[in-house]
Amino acid sequence: MTIKRKIGVLTSGGDAPGMNACLKNIVEYSSSKGFEIVAFKHGYQGLIDDDFVLLSPKDVELITPYGGSVIFSGRSKDFLDSKKRKKGMQNLLKHNVEALIVLGGEGSMHGALRFAEYKIPVYLIPCTIDNDISCTERSIGFDTSVNNAVEMINNVQQTMRANDRIGVIETMGRYCGDIALYSAVAAECEVLAIPEKNKTKADIFKYIQKSLDKGKTPTVIVSENVFDVVQLSKEIEKKFKKESRPVILSYMQRGGSPTIFDILLAIRMAVNAVLCVQNKVASSVLSLKNQKIIPIKLEDAISCKKQLNFELMEMFKELNQT
Ligand code: F6P
């Protein structure tokens, strides 16, 4: 009997639409190349606890259109402890896993680097709605979450306008303003506050006033961790003597079926990650660069600095703040 080569897989951090599509294609493509998949549950925690399931193509049939992660995602406090990480590594060795593919975001990428000190290569596939991994133009899940956010912002705008109210809407993104910026432009909102651009409440009031002067019903988009939208909404009511309502989009942005863009990105990244294993590429982050998927060495990927889409930001300013 021939012993199958094995690849470990886990989904880590906040889940992202497209994670299942990516997982399915890793399982299918790697199986066609003669590998077996050991999927660890609940992210890095499953690795430490040796909580795993062997996946064959039959197990992942039809999972592509679903949000979430069928093998569960999560953040592991234990993984910060080097002794527990070592236990995780021993589990990989026990299973004869020759490489680990991690589907996750920024935090998971740093986790992958912690692991790369061991001999088993780790490949990070950027899967996060935040789009905060610097070395890739897109992470899987971002497009879906912006689509979700725009749909909900449009709904809020309609009811706010009907009641002559100012909507103050919080988007996710952790410390990256991409979801807020892309959604604000696509939903034609008037006021935006993101972590990359220091705005005071006085700035926000100034732009609201500009929009009111044009006879519009302004919508304020606030990326999480910038302002408390409940408090801001109260202050807006007081300042403009107009009703205002806070809306926190929260997990409604993170769930749901992935868009075709995210499915295609997930499939391409999955295939390329398996090829990395097959070709014994050094630990890397799979990255979308100029329409191509390329592996970028983990250490180089971590030292990249995330850039805001300045062109989009400038256009937003031109449309609303001049
Ligand atoms: O990283 C994805 C994300 O949804 C962030 O936008 C958000 O800050 C965070 O996860 C929320 O995490 P949790 O679901 O663990 O509270």
Task: Kindly list the characteristics that best describe this protein.
Rossmann fold, 11 helices, binds 6-O-phosphono-beta-D-fructofuranose, 19% strand, 2 domains, seven-stranded mixed β-sheet, single chain, 322 residues
Quick structural summary:
The chain has helices spanning 19-32, 44-49, 82-94, 106-115, 142-162, 178-186, 201-213, 229-240, 260-278, 298-303, 310-320, and strands spanning 5-11, 35-40, 52-55, 97-104, 122-126, 166-171, 191-193, 219-223, 244-248, 284-289, 292-297. It is α/β, with parallel strands linked by helices and 322 residues long.
> Would you tell me the structural class of the helices and strands?
alpha/beta
| Regions with little confidence, pLDDT below 50 for 5+ residues | none
Count of DSSP H/I helices:
11
Rounded Rg = 22 Å
User: What is the average per-residue confidence, as pLDDT, rounded to a whole number?
Assistant: 96
Largest sheet: 7 strands, mixed
In percent, how helical is the residue content?
A: 40-55%
- Give the C-level CATH assignment of the largest domain: Alpha Beta
Estimate the strand proportion: 15-25%
Which architecture name of the largest domain does CATH use?
Answer: 3-Layer(aba) Sandwich
